Amino acid sequence: MAIGRPLNLTANVASKNISVLATAGQTSFTVAGGYRINEIAVYRNGTRLVDGRDFTATDGSIVTLVSAATIYDVIEYQIFDSFNIANAVGTSGDSTINGNLTATSFYGDGSNLTGVSGFATAISSTQGDFLNQVFVTSKVLPLGAGTSVSITSSSADGNAAFTRAGRIDVGTGSTLHISEGTTFITNVLGVF
Fold it and tell me: Is a pLDDT exceeding 70 seen at residue 61?
């Protein structure tokens, strides 16, 4: 067992141990496979060394002892490869979630959300502001020229489809088809 401040790792910390035998007067050691800077523990004959006082490790490859080793000193490196949290979602960059995402609340203005259909837009995005509770929505839903759309619903959906718009303007050469058995309701909010 190591003397000094031994590290106890939980199962979510991946690490590896490498041991080498020193030669007389050796101060510089190349770590096989390298290491992440500030993520290495160094031991000399079982005693943990202090970074900056007993050794330096600043380039991801070489560990330099402050005091030269004697022949057959055992130098051991504990290299922390990663810290893993099962099923974690990253905090930066893109994340993909397969399945449902449930949260007690979402923050921000939502301007970067996609695939979300709301019934209206708050006039203000400032939480607590009066106008954050006042909404606007389009009265007209345009169907662009040359576009073909088919609206189909099933018994699982109550054979109904709806829109908040009070009117649909169908462009030249466009087709809006409501499938047989489907009831299509406009102005579902009853505001127009």
Answer: yes
Question: In 3D, which of 72, 67, 70 has the Cα closest to residue 56?
Answer: 67
Residue with tokens 């096989």: 32
Strand order in the sheet with 47-48: 13-21, 74-83, 40-44, 47-48
Count the domains in the chain.
2
- Other C-beta atoms within 10 Å of 145: how many? 10
Contact 42, 63 (CB under 8 A): yes
User: Which pLDDT does position 1 carry in this prediction?
Assistant: 43
What is the separation of C-alpha 157 from the centre of its chain, rounded to a whole number of angstroms?
A: 33
Alpha-carbon span 172 to 72, nearest angstrom: 88
Torsion angles phi and psi, residue 70, rounded to 5: -100, 165
**pLDDT value at residue 129:** 84
Same domain, 72 and 136: no
| Domain region containing 35 | 13-83
